[in-house]
Amino acid sequence: MSTRGCQGSDSLFRPLDAIPEERRERVQRTQSGFQPFDKCTSQVKRVHSENNACINAKSTSAPAESPKLRRHSSPSSVSPTSPKFGKADSYEKLEKLGEGSYATVYKGKSKVHGKLVALKVIRLQEEEGTPFTAIREASLLKGLKHVNIVLLHDIIHTKETLTLVFEYVYTDLGQYMVKHPGGLHPENVRLFLFQLLRGLSYIHQRFILHRDLKPQNLLISENGELKLADFGLARAKSVPSHTYSNEVVTLWYRPPDVLLGSTEYSTCLDMWGVGCIFIEMIQGVAAFPGMKDVQDQLERIFLVLGTPSEETWCGVQSLPHYRADRFPVYSSKKLRQAWNRLGHVDHAEDLASRFLQCSPKKRLSAQTALQHQYFSTLTAKLRELTDMTSIFIVQSVKLQTESNSNNKPNTTNH
């Protein structure tokens, strides 16, 4: 697939000759895909030295205390064993938040600055070493600084574990929707989607694909800030396009081109997931909840969007898992026929339809989507904010109270 597939994204992936000299070297380094394992490992280790160097620099540049002041200082402030970044004993585990196949996440507290943190403790196998997904996540997040992307505070590497220390965010979008079933307040959906697109636009402009967008990977803070998290499957997009795995993205949020075996994709991959999440926030149910396998997932998609043909999706017949006789021939529907709440919000159906295009080349880019009429009710100030500035700094922007009248699950027509 051409990397010029998404609308509004032509400028994101261009030949090296079109890239300014000062950026060319950085893009060339990504052309072979992701960095080698040993180079990524060195980046992880370098975080330790950078943090410790920062601490040492502060201690050497600070003015000397008078004896009188020193007598009143607490022992911990001058002790050589004071907590430091990069050290396991600098963090206190408070409670377990969840456990996966290779990592356990704890709520914790930093002894350095006293703030709550999330500790992702990755178990290391002696014969296998550090899981590559952990190296990839740490390496990518180290260079991403945006208010709508979870912040990586610290990395702790011991013989038994690798611990990634993140800012603590109290819930995720999946839990938030469980707490408020039946569809979220329309204005809250708008604010969550705007922040999701801000974060995606930021990483897409840096040639990074998330590749695992789902509500559980979108963190929600107490004041409503949304943050992209879990970059274990993320990849630095090479230029030109390289072949990637089609075993990415949780089934319900996986686009039809990847379900049909495509391994050449660009930012369009993430934009399908955005459409699914958008509908789920509005309707209160997953857009395409496949219950069996890839075949079932594709049928649920084609039942609404229509069974693709070479006329409606140029190149579909060349995909590895495509067969003309594999699916019944469905005609496309208006999205509001499947998800009625889309018809209750101005421009919501049009925006959703631009994300949910079977042909990846037709999907709207994150950058272009931020200018869609659906967001016309938001103040123009939100588009002027810097990367590290929250939308909630604007006084008129705040989450609405979720209405109990919405708290009744909706059924869909498919």
Strand-helix topology:
Layout lengths: L20 H9 L7 H25 L5 H6 L2 H4 L12 E9 L3 E8 L5 E8 L8 H11 L9 E6 L3 E7 L3 E2 H7 L6 H19 L3 E2 L8 E3 L5 E3 L6 E2 L19 H4 L8 H16 L10 H12 L29 H4 L9 H8 L10 H4 L45
Antiparallel strand pairs: 1-2, 2-3, 3-5, 4-5, 6-8, 7-10, 8-9
Helix pairs in contact: 2-5, 7-9, 9-12
The CATH architecture of the largest domain is Orthogonal Bundle
Task: Write down the overall mean pLDDT.
Answer: 81
Number of folding domains? 2
Overall morphology:
globular
How many beta-strand segments? 10
Radius of gyration: 23 Å
SSE run:
HHHHEEEHEEEHHEEEEHHHHHH
CATH class of the largest domain equals: Mainly Alpha
Secondary-structure class: alpha+beta
Poorly predicted parts? 1-5, 8-19, 21-41, 47-78, 239-243, 405-414
Name of the CATH homologous superfamily of the largest domain = Transferase(Phosphotransferase) domain 1
Q: Give helix % range.
A: 25-40%
Strand content: 5-15%
CATH topology description of the largest domain: Transferase(Phosphotransferase), domain 1
Query: How far apart are the termini?
Result: 30 Å
Q: How many helices does DSSP assign? A: 13
Lateral arrangement of strands in the main beta sheet: 1-2-3-5-4
Question: What is the chains' assembly state?
Answer: single chain
Major sheet description? 5 strands, antiparallel
Descriptive keywords:
414 residues, disordered N terminus, 3-stranded antiparallel sheet, disordered C terminus, globular, alpha+beta, 2 domains, 13 helices, 5-stranded antiparallel sheet, Transferase(Phosphotransferase), domain 1, Phosphorylase Kinase, domain 1
